[in-house]
Design brief:
single chain, 331 residues, mainly alpha, Endonuclease III, domain 1, 0% strand, disordered C terminus, hydrolase, DNA binding, metal-binding, class I DNA-(apurinic or apyrimidinic site) endonuclease activity
């Protein structure tokens, strides 16, 4: 009996007529080997992706942090886009409640001239130049009759001074001859003036006449494309696309908010992502410096303070726990 039991335990697997083991037996062994090999292989390391913090590092006191990181997917719906765009504008309005045109002016004539002069230079440079210009030529009548060489000498620091001299004298003559020496308050009239395009016209309409308009400058174009509000590159098409996302009453302030943000935080070459108050809403987060401390060093402000209030450093406006300063001239 013991020999018979041993024989049964030692009996080899049955073979087919060809002398090979059944397929089920070989398949089972192969599957076990494959499973064993898979178990010892290490899973590939996951690629690190920059993720915006749920709470931005550059906040002003009292601003509620974003609840979730809502970077838009490629198939973001129209409704979701509108909501995100308007939320960005609300966030920027809290960070820059004092946003305004950074060109100094006292009347529509000074504003239109200053805006024409601001092409290819900084607002700060224009503000350093226009006091002398307006002191000598305070009205369109005065500037239209000016000696071009004398005007060129005043405008030389602004760059392209010959072309700009021709434009400001030309627009002054047009104001005197066609509009009785007054700056018109209609878009179709403003764009007829030498050196005045839609961008300049909307600056004048929005800030001198209180009529809503979107100012599509280089900062505005860069940011709305980064935020995926539009994929257009033509300024007129950008204006139409962005204007459709907001009520008309928001257009002028929206322009100020976006331009201020582009000049101070969301720079062209190296945006300060780690100090950005709208990082959780930005699909381009990670293009710039994400480390909060390093990002703070990228914030730009005028000598002596943050633009809009020349007494305090930018941390007074942007750091967590900071308090927004009063508008320029207040206090």
């Amino acid at each position: 009996m013991k020999k018979a039991a041993s024989a049964r335990r030692a009996a080899p697997a049955k073979k087919t007529a060809s002398g090979k083991e059944p397929a089920s037996t070989t398949k089972g062994a192969s599957a076990k080997k494959a499973a064993k090999g898979a178990a010892v292989k290490k899973a590939p390391a996951a690629k690190k992706v920059a993720v915006a913090p749920k709470k931005a590092t550059a906040r002003i006191k009292g601003t509620a942090p974003a609840r979730t990181v809502v970077h838009p997917p490629g198939d973001e719906s129209r409704t979701a886009l509108v909501r995100r765009a308007r939320r960005i504008n609300r966030e920027l309005a809290e960070v820059f409640p004092y946003a305004h045109p950074e060109l100094d002016f006292e009347n529509p004539f000074q504003l239109v001239v200053a805006t024409v002069l601001s092409a290819q230079t900084t607002d700060l440079r224009v503000n350093q130049t226009t006091p002398s210009l307006f002191a000598k030529y305070p009205t369109p009548e005065d500037l239209s009759a000016a000696n071009p060489e004398e005007v060129e000498e005043i405008l030389r620091p602004c760059g392209f001074f010959r072309a700009k001299t021709k434009s400001v004298i030309g627009l002054s003559k047009a104001l005197v001859e066609d509009f009785g020496g007054e700056v018109p308050g209609r878009l179709e009239d403003l764009v007829k003036l030498p050196g005045v395009g839609r961008k300049t016209a909307f600056v004048v309409l929005g800030n001198a006449f209180g009529r809503p308009g979107i100012t599509v400058d280089t900062h505005f174009q860069r940011l709305v494309r980064r935020w995926r509000w539009t994929g257009e590159s033509d300024p007129d098409k950008i204006e139409a696309a962005v204007g459709a996302l907001f009520p008309k009453s928001d257009w002028t302030d929206l322009s100020h908010h976006v331009i201020w943000h582009g000049r101070r935080i969301c720079h062209a070459r190296k945006p300060a992502c780690g100090a950005c108050p709208i990082a959780p809403l930005c699909p381009a987060y990670g293009e710039g410096e994400t480390d909060p401390e390093k990002a703070k060093k990228l914030l730009k402000y005028e000598k002596g303070g943050f633009p809009g209030q020349r007494l305090k450093p930018p941390q007074a406006y942007l750091d967590a726990g900071g308090t927004p300063a009063p508008p320029l001239g207040a206090g």
